[in-house]
Amino acid sequence: MNNTEPTQAQRIAVLFRNRPRSLFLRSQLALAAVLICVAWFQLDIDWSNQFSARRLENLRRFSVEVYPFELRDEPFSTTRMVAWGWDVWRDRAGTAALTTFGISIVAILIAGTLSIPAAFPAAHKVIATQPLPRQNSSRLAAVSSQLPLVLSRCALMFCRVIPEYIIAFLLVSLLGPSAWPAILAHDREHAGRDPGNASCARA
Question: What is the number of domains present in the chain?
Fold first, then answer.
């Protein structure tokens, strides 16, 4: 009897046929497609005005203004464009890029430091669903045992629901225009999101 090993293409075909299928996911995708089509055709869009003279003039003005102001009176030159880009990088863009990079690194470090202790009380593996035996525990003891889990998860949810730019705007009014409002705004969102996602796994 000749037993031949299936080829890679055959194994891929078998995996594709046996892949998990979700009727709920497919129905949601179909519903989203139908709603998009309904919204598209129900909108009152005047397609005849999309290429009017005013819009074409705005497009022409944008294409002119997007070109560097210092180079508009000169013929196009790759060398001149690269030199202009290097001057901008050396004067302003380089400092801004390095500042952004530093803000992200500091925000990641602080968020990671804050998320480690915040993940423990929000995890079911640490705060058991039934820490006390049923016959030896009262209802008050059962509720109080779940209090750290509920409070920590509510705090993490509160950190995630408020947009970063709102927190940054409030921190700018308190701390002034510096890098710290951006750092703390990112810390608040990431410190609430990372342990919140990690703590969703039940024991």
Answer: 1
